[in-house]
Amino acid sequence: MKKNQKKIIAPSILSADFGKLAEEIKEVQDAGADWIHCDVMDGVFVPNITIGPVIVKAARKATKLPLDVHLMIIDPDRYLEDFRRAGADVITVHQEACPHLHRTLTKIKELGAKAGVSINPSTPISALNEVFGVADLILVMTVNPGFGGQKFIDKCREKISDLRDLKKKHGYKFIIEVDGGVSEKNIKDLSNLGAEAFVAGSAIFGSDSYEKIIAKMRKEVTK
Ligand code: DX5
Ligand code: ZN
After folding, report:
1. Element (H, E) at 94
2. pLDDT at 4
3. Which of 43, 76, 98, 147 is most open to solvent, judged by the fewest CB atoms within 10 Å of its CB?
4. Beta bridge partners of 186
5. For 21-42, what is the mean pLDDT?
């Protein structure tokens, strides 16, 4: 991300009303969202089961905004093409689910999407040493993935500043994204630590006014 580039606010549809998903997506789009974050869970890598390519395709029809697809599934290589075809612009896999991470990220790029890699709270950033130059985005999980509305894990904060320092030192281009327990209360701190993209589910979809909450978050991250 270039200096002074606008920070990215990505509402997670996990906390949206799936009975009116298209409307919910349009509403956060009109309220100023930058990306739409789609959480894909398989009941194996994480305890919960959510959506697949069919719903991502429906989300694609509802908005022109980039779809930020977070795959919390084992062996994601099997589904990369399906999610790309469904309209994913960013595809993020988990380091813990990819024994051949370099190959997986390369494949995502070949498909024409931005290649993201995520780490769970218990995974150190050193697990990504060999792919820092390949990944377009690093997603730091600040809760254990699986559910919306969980408490932010404070210990993960240092990973964000460590990533920022690595970017500076080596000129890496990846975007630093955070996901889990992000709200208007801690977004400024996360931004100051170096986060550039912010996923928020319950904080946005649980609020009375999407416009007000997104504007508030935007103000917090705009210097
Ligand atoms: C959690 C998901 C998140 C989730 C965040 O496993 O990856 O994207 O929607 O929800 P909140 O913002 O409520 O913590
Ligand atoms: Zn997510």
Report:
1. strand 90-94
2. 63
3. 43
4. none
5. 98
pLDDT of residue 137: 99
What are φ and ψ of residue 196, in 5° steps?
-120, -20
How confident is residue 3, by pLDDT bands cut at 50, 70 and 90? low
At 135 the three-state DSSP class reads coil
User: What is the per-residue pLDDT for 2?
Assistant: 57
Check pLDDT > 60 for residue 112. Answer: yes
Instruction: Calculate what percentage of the chain has a pLDDT beyond 90.
Output: 97
- Tell me the best of 13, 184, 199, 210 to mutate to test the pocket of ligand 1, counting ligand atoms within 8 Å of each CB and taking the most: 199
Active site residue 179: yes
Catalytic residue among 34, 42, 136, 179: 179
Between CA 57 and CA 59 the distance in angstroms is 5
Q: How many CA atoms lie within 13 A of 46 on its CB side?
A: 22
Lookup: tokens for 90: 């960013």
Binding-site residues, ligand 1, Cβ < 6 A: 12, 14-15, 37, 39, 70, 143, 145-146, 148-150, 179-182, 199-203
Q: What is the 169 CA–ligand 1 centroid distance (Å)?
A: 30
The residue among 11, 67, 1 whose CA lies nearest residue 184 is 11
Which ligand is the nearest neighbour of the Cα of 207?
1
